[in-house]
Amino acid sequence: MRLLIIEDDRDAADYLVKAFREVGHVADAAKDGEDGLAMALDGAYDVLIVDRMLPKLDGLSLIGTLRSRKIETPALILSALGQVDDRVKGLRAGGDDYLPKPYSFSELLARVEVLARRRGARNEETVLRVADLELDRLSHQVRRGADEITLQPREFRLLEYLMKHAGQVVTRTMLLENVWDYHFDPQTNVIDVHISRLRSKIDKNFSQPLLHTIRGAGYMVRDGAR
Amino acid sequence: MTALGKLFRTTTFKLTLVYLTVFALFAAFLLGYFALNTRRLVTEQITDTVNAEITGLSEQYRLGGIRRLVIVVDGRARRPGSSLYLVTTHAGEALAGNVTALPPGTLDKAGWLETDYRRLDETEGSDRPEHQALVRVFLLPGGFRLLVGRDLEERERLYHIVLSAGRWSVGIVIVLGLAGGLFVTRRVLRRVDAMTETSRTIMGGDLGGRLPIAGTGDEIDRLAENLNVMLERIEALMNGLKEVSDNIAHDLKTPLTRLRNRAEQALRTARTEAEYRAALEGTIDESDGLISTFNALLMIARAESGQARDDMKEFDAAEIANDIGELYEPLAEEKGIALKVDAANAAPVTGNRELVSQALANLVDNAIKYTSLRSEPAEGVAPEILVRAQSEADRVLLTVADRGPGIPEADRGRAVERFVRLEQSRSQPGSGLGLSLAAAVARLHGGELILADNAPGLKCMIALPRGGPVQSGG
Asked: Which backbone phi and psi does A143 adopt, to 5 degrees?
């Protein structure tokens, strides 16, 4: 995956470039909005990571310019402003995701990977499959092997989201945002309990677990046999 | 600046001056016009009278010649208050009349003129000045000349009376206007000075000061009242700020110290990579806690400053109760607590959905935390939490009732303050900002957070006005 990091704080940019390279991605950095725009227009990147406040050209204008030139590279906005309406502004300007500073690298990595694979991914499929687990998005039926599994509506959405991003790490915040539509920190880790409930329904009687906990990052649905 | 100088520079005084000038000019113009018109009217009257007499006298001359004219003129000239008459020959020799001492050449030309004269019956060289008259000279056929006129003294006196009346009244208008203006200005100035004085002490740091109110309910009072409300709000905000900084110093320093100690300890004692790893992970956990505390603080500050008022929409509080109940139900169950939601009926309310959700989530989170804290359940009371949304006449109530240890009545006010965690909960995780955030969100919506006894346990209620906060500055 090729990443462009547009961030004026040199330390932060260096750290991100190094960290992304360590996990096997290609990352370039731009130090201000104008350079960033030129590179984003020019190179073929999979994801842009854009700081909201940049010298010369601010992050939101940069994304707006790209979108007006029909360049639809997914963009994640990093910002010190973490309030709900700032987030809404960021997404309205054409950003695809919004992460308030300070963030953890695992959170950023998870979101960037989801963004990179979002287009043409499993959005249109009506039936999601991971190993012998099958989720029908139209009839709302879930089966594992020959067994039918009964899920509550929220559990269904949780599993749907996890399976849509099968093989990718999904963080707790991402789940809270996308399954519950909350953008605040619920203090206690309520998501963990929901996950363990879901796990007891889909994994309990099967030798092959599909819902994995990724330490220090989040969760992943994955066909462990492969 | 001198006191008088200050007086003259006020808006009130300047307005008075402008008003006074306009009014005085208008009055002067009006009275001048009146005086001139009076004079013209009197002149017209004289002209008419004189013309009539000349017509009469020339008729007499036509009928009876110079002899008859002389007799008639003599007769008329003797009447008291009579007009002025003079009949002369072509050479200027007076035949009859009551006028003398005319300037030479007066009788040479026919027509109207104003001239000095003296009556015949007045002694020559008296102290009285010669009079002024408006006369008409008429040439009779046969070379005789007839002069008829009226004294102008009356006209001039009337004119002067009106003129001086005008001067006096304009003068009085100016003097009274100035005095009134000064009086009003001084009154206003005194009140403004009092306000300035108070605001100066407030700027000096005494935020308790309030502007004086005269109690007349006029515009200055209204201004002062509004400014006082503003000052109250500023004082509350300042106190809040002070409290926050005190509390930040107190409560953020604790986890920061822990963080530092942990790092130091790792440097000193850790030998293996696993030990270092554990220390670093602990450091990250600790800083995550700090970040979440910080976010909660920012959120409260934002709610209290009223910034979030922009994105208020109508939403269903019952839906929020159901959603949050559903979010926390597994967690409660895991801790052996029954979480029930009573929100069957829609409870529409205008507000910030995200903030209200967060406030309710905080209350439920607290309820779970403190219910599970109570190690042995109270006699005959099952550990349960009730989340309820109900619609009342003009407000919507979101209630979270638990069976935890509750909060003694005396501590309830304090519990809502930022960072206050009552002593028994110091050992529990959490930023201690849950109740403060719920209270700030309620206040943002123009509502309140009510803490009550659930006998046993605690009942927290977020009361929100149905129509959202009243936007007027009151």
From this structure: -130, 145
